Amino acid sequence: NAGVTQTPKFRVLKTGQSMTLLCAQDMNHEYMYWYRQDPGMGLRLIHYSVGEGTTAKGEVPDGYNVSRLKKQNFLLGLESAAPSQTSVYFCASSYVAGDTGELFFGEGSRLTVL
Amino acid sequence: GQQVMQIPQYQHVQEGEDFTTYCNSSTTLSNIQWYKQRPGGHPVFLIQLVKSGEVKKQKRLTFQFGEAKKNSSLHITATQTTDVGTYFCAGSRYSTLTFGKGTMLLVSP
Q1: What's the CA gap between B45 and B59, in Å, rounded?
Q2: What are phi and psi of A40, to 5 degrees?
Q3: CA atoms lying within 13 Å on the CB side of residue A101
Q4: Tens digits of residue pLDDT in A33-90
Q5: How far apart are CA A7 and CA B17, in angstroms?
Q6: Residue A66: beta bridge partners?
Q7: Which of A37, A40, A76, A108 gives 20 to 30 Å between its CA and that of B38?
Q8: Which of A23, A25, A32, A43 is most worth mutating to test chain B (most B CB atoms within 10 A of its CB)?
Q9: What is the C-alpha separation between B48 and B63, in angstroms, rounded?
């Protein structure tokens, strides 16, 4: 049982390059989330989705876009990467709304922007 | 916006000592969740508290939710080296969770 899988696990980008992080879950969860984690900052919500075809902004959405074309996948895109986007990105999913149910996290994707 | 503050930021204890981390919100919360993240790992759900004044125990871990639903605590009795990691609280008021910055626990054998 894979749970939540993130790819890639590591990536180095140059400023201005674009990339997409993929999150896949096999638990048939409706809700999916993208967080970023920076030293001393905890986890901050970037975007989230309450179901297939829906997306919503979180606390720090600027510079990111997301898509949820299939229920099991949630993509996070960086159109023009900046050094401030160097971070560890975590995808999470939940069966019920994330404020009332357990979040299941992926193993994280470490992104470095030079 | 909603803020969830955690103290202390960091604590180093000797194995066998107790440990407590505190979580405070600027607003009343619907519920609060606690997560543990081992070094180099991902957050893992520990528990959710919903009721005012609620107390829950998991072996050596005791979780409390304040009467006003604006604060919470996690207490570990007789820490072990396996307790090492960062403990996060996450509060909910509307439809998403807001995480505190976490308390990093180091345990020396």
Answers
A1: 15
A2: 75, 5
A3: 14
A4: 999 999 888 899 999 999 999 999 999 999 999 999 999 999 999 999 999 999 999 9
A5: 40
A6: A76
A7: A76
A8: A43
A9: 9
pLDDT band with cut points at 50, 70 and 90 for residue A1: low
Tell me if A21 sits within 8 A of A32, measured CB to CB: no
Diameter over CA atoms, chain A: 39
Per DSSP, the three-state class of A111 is: strand
Peptide bond into B8 cis (omega under 30): yes
Nearest to B88 among A42, A98, A99 (CB): A42
CA distance B4 to A107: 24
Give the one of B33, B42, B95 whose C-beta lies nearest to A106's C-beta.
B42
A83 preceded by a cis bond (ω within 30 of 0): no
Three-class DSSP category at A83? helix
Categorize the per-residue pLDDT at A8 as very low, low, confident or very high, splitting at 50, 70 and 90.
very high
Residue A9: per-residue pLDDT = 97
**Residue B34 C-alpha, separation from nearest chain A C-alpha, in angstroms:** 10
The tokens describing A52, both together, are 């297939």
**Residue to substitute from A99, A100, A109, interface B, most B β-carbons within 10 A:** A99
**B100 close to B43: Cβ distance less than 8 angstroms:** no
User: Do residue A43 and residue B93 have CB atoms under 8 angstroms apart?
Assistant: no
